[in-house]
Design a protein that fits this description.
Layout: E1 4-7, H1 14-21, H2 28-47, E2 52-55, H3 61-69, H4 72-75, E3 92-96, H5 99-108, H6 119-125, E4 135-139, H7 144-157
Parallel strand pairs: 1-2, 3-4
Keywords: ATP-binding, Kinase, Nucleotide-binding, Transferase
Catalytic activity: D-gluconate + ATP = 6-phospho-D-gluconate + ADP + H(+)
Organism: Alca torda (Razorbill)
Length: about 160
């Protein structure tokens, strides 16, 4: 696509990385500053008319709202008013698959601070996207080229 790529894991605080590496799941308090920083990156890139891919475990609806609208999403469950910090246009690609498939991929990942033992907490926290969120669900059981093609098709159709 020629778009900039950001891995949200690169923006976790040292405290968050330490906590996860010790097998302690993050909570909302840990994640909100991280999500706000990611929103700021997305907003900056949007202001420059730069399209972006962000790899991020935005597990809860509220987290996805923070990515799109910033800190104001935390204080209000109401839609933004026109002209008031308008939400970014984001397509969320929910990569969905059985726990054993994801666990197998985590086991193969080397040098990452998230241990496979935290996968259960990720599933426990997960709120899959639903209407009216702008999202697609893509099966992780497909091949990588099929996953990429499905996401690309959704981007260019939407």
């Amino acid at each position: 696509l020629g778009w900039k790529f950001y891995d949200a894991d690169d923006y976790h605080s040292p405290e968050n990385k330490k906590k996860m590496s010790e097998g302690i799941p993050l909570n909302d308090e840990d994640r909100i500053p991280w999500l706000c920083e990611l929103h700021d990156i997305l907003r900056r890139e949007d202001s420059s008319r730069q399209d972006v891919v962000l790899a991020c475990s935005a597990l809860k609806k509220m987290y996805r709202r923070v990515l799109a609208s910033g800190a104001s999403a935390i204080e209000s469950n109401q839609p933004e008013q026109p002209g008031e910090n308008a939400a970014l246009k984001i397509l969320f690609a929910h990569l969905d698959g059985p726990r054993h498939v994801i666990a197998g991929r985590l086991e193969k990942r080397k040098g990452h601070f998230l241990p496979p033992e935290l996968l259960k907490s990720q599933f426990d926290t997960l709120e899959p996207p639903s209407a009216p969120e702008n999202f697609i669900t893509v099966s992780l059981e497909k091949s990588l080229p099929e996953i990429v093609l499905e996401i690309e098709n959704a981007i260019f159709q939407g």
